[in-house]
Structure formats: structure tokens, C-alpha cells
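Second attempt. The first submission of Amidohydrolase family protein had a stray character pasted in from the spreadsheet, which I only caught after the job came back as garbage. Lesson logged: always re-copy from the clean sequence file. Corrected sequence (420 aa) follows.
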Amino acid sequence: MATEILKGHIADFPSLGELRITENGYLVLEDGVIQGVYSRLPPCYAACPVVDYGNRIVMQSFADLHLHAPQYPMLGMGMDLPLLEWLQTYTFQTEARFADTDFARTVYRRLARELIEHGTTRVCMFSSLHTDATLILMEELSRAGITGYVGKVNMDRRGVPGVLEETTEESIRETLRWLESCGGISGIAPILTPRFTPSCTDKLMAFLGSAAAERNLRVQSHLSENLQEMELVRSLHPDCQRYYQSYEKFGLWKDHTVMAHCVHSDRAERDAMRRANVLAVHCADSNVALCSGIAPVRAMLDEGVWVALGSDMAGSTMLHMLDVVASTIRSSKVRRIHSQWQEPFLTVEEALYLGTTAGHRWFGAGDGFAVGDRLHAIVLEDSELPSVRPLSVRERVERCVYRRQERCISAVWADGHQVL
Ligand code: GUN
Ligand code: FE
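This time the job returned cleanly.
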């Protein structure tokens, strides 16, 4: 058994709003599995080597529960159109490039590297409709040490003819080929991914629902992101009172289903999420960048809905989860302003919990640095930043969020291995 000990200020988020700090503490691992966090090293570990991070902060890494890998080349551009026009004008054209597997390899290798440098060690990700590029994406994430789920996108209507489209039969056949080919990729599992209701025929949705049940696969999609989109869903599924029912009727609304955005989900839709244990992924920056709206995260949390964070790259302008966390807080402050100060904004501790523990739980992890979990952690480096007095660890964490520095993450652990 290999014992490793990390020494530093150990910081984790065991519950919503709770930042637990063990100053000058020890995080003990055996074969990458957390044995405990101690303020004094237990004598049984006295002879083991210690990696001393000094005054640095050893914090939980991030889990990004919603992002689109093939949109990486357009990150930071095309933020002037609302969702449906944005998809048709920019997004589908960009995703179409991933028919080229060499291009996919180059871009996805770089993306995987950047995610690790940003301290994102777990992802739930959309690929494009291309099976081969999806397999390449899974390989590159695995190579970089990232763990999580990737979905070949299903979209057999409303693509761009001749550019980005698949027939129902192709979509089914390619999904089966993908599922048969991706078994050996370490740490990365497949997740069924109907792009969103408007992109999929009933026949395709029914196939995905039965595949999810028969093969015990998870499902991800988009929900109630934009008012025009919701109008379109109502016209396509007049039998559904609410958007979520267009997934529910095909067996896609189930335990651990991931639904991105949920900006305009009303109380009934949110209750349906809670009952089914569906994860609502809040994509704060994207919701503003595409002028979709500001999701009622505080209400969701109060009602017991499971919420985690996603960058939604490239509907957003950012990939770094420290930026996403800051954006989440800012968005919640806009809701506070517009509620005549009735709705409390999210605190730094709450937003960091959503970006860490809440997301890691979807992958089966416990709360904070839980004993028995494989380590997912970052080391925060802020020694270059000036201050007029010694800062508390809590103040330093806050500043790392709001004033994110290049190279503010000096080491990363994913699934028990050091990957940076
Ligand atoms: N809805 C369907 N496709 C997409 C996408 O690529 N990004 C976002 N933000 N919403 C979508
Ligand atoms: Fe999205």
C-alpha cells in the first residue's frame, strides 16, 4: 500500500455554505484513497514521506457538469444571438468541423490539458454527433487523467443540411457503434445525449429511452433554457404541459438524469426534478451571455432540488470553474437586486459547494474530502498577491474566486493520481 501525505491548509465544502478549514493540516492517502484530514499527524504515519505545500491551500477540485467539447474553438466569440439563432449561425458550423478526426485529436488534447490546468477533474460533457471524434475525446480526457462521462450527441432534426445532420437510422446505428467501441477507455463512461427535445424525433427519443433502461445508462440534455425554445417544444409536443414531460414520456427523466440550464423551470417542473432525483446544472455565465435569463437557484436549493454547476462552454465566455463560481455569485446578486432584496444571493461558500461537492456527488463521491473517496484536489497558489495584513484562509479562498490569477493552481489530483 502506498501512503502519501499532503501538508498545507486543507479546505473542503462538506455541505451547502460550509467551508471547512484545517490550517497546517495533513491529508493522508493510501493508494490515492483519502484516509483522513488531521490537524496533527497520527503517529502511525510518522515514518511516511510528506509533500509539504507550506502556506498553500489544498482544496477540492472542480466538477463541470455541463460543457460542449466541440465548441472549444469558438469559446469567447459569437455572443450576440439568442439560443436558437446562435445554434444555427455559429454552433452547428463549429461542431461540423469534428468530422475531421485529426482536427478533433489536436483540439481535444488541448482542451483536456486546459481542463486539468484549471483544476476541473470531473466532467459530464457533450461531444458532437460524430462517433469517431467522440471516441477521440474520450481517449484524450482519459490520457489527461480526467474522469467522467461523455455523450455522442443525438440530433436527427433541425441540424444544418449537408453540414451537421444525421438521419434517425444513422443516429441509432452510430450510437450503438459508439457504445460498443468505448468500453475500454479508462475513467470515461458513455452517457446518452439527446441534444434537446427540438433536435430529436420521437422515434430517436424512444430508442434512447429504451437504451437507457436496457443498458442502465445515464442521460443528459437541456431543459427550459430559453423562452423561444420552450415555445418550440410546446408546438412539437402539444400533449406535454411542461418541457420536462417531453423527456419523461420516453423514459429519459430518471434518477441522475442531468438537465442543463433550467432557467425557466417553474415550481411544478422543479418538483418533478426533486422527485426523480434529476440534477439541475446551473450555467450562470451562459444564461447571461445568450440572454436566456437568470435561473432561480436559491429557490431550487430551498426546495431541495439537486443543483451543480456547469461552464456550458461555449454558450458561456469561460471554462475556468473559478470564473464560473464567481459568475454564479454575480448572477444571484442580479436576482437579489430584481427581487427588491428579498432573495438572498449565493455566498462564496455556497457557490464553491455547488462547483465542487454537489457535482462530485453525481459521480458517487461523498461530502468534501470524504474518507474512502479517491482524491480530487487542487493546490491554490496566491503568494504573489499583495495584502496589507495577514489574510485568513477563508479570505484567500474568496480572493482566488473573485480575482482569479493565471497559474493560480499549482498542483492537481484526479481520481487519486497527481495529474499536474
Ligand atoms: N441547446 C441545444 N444545444 C445547445 C447548446 O449547444 N448549447 C446550449 N447552451 N444550449 C443548447
Ligand atoms: Fe449546453
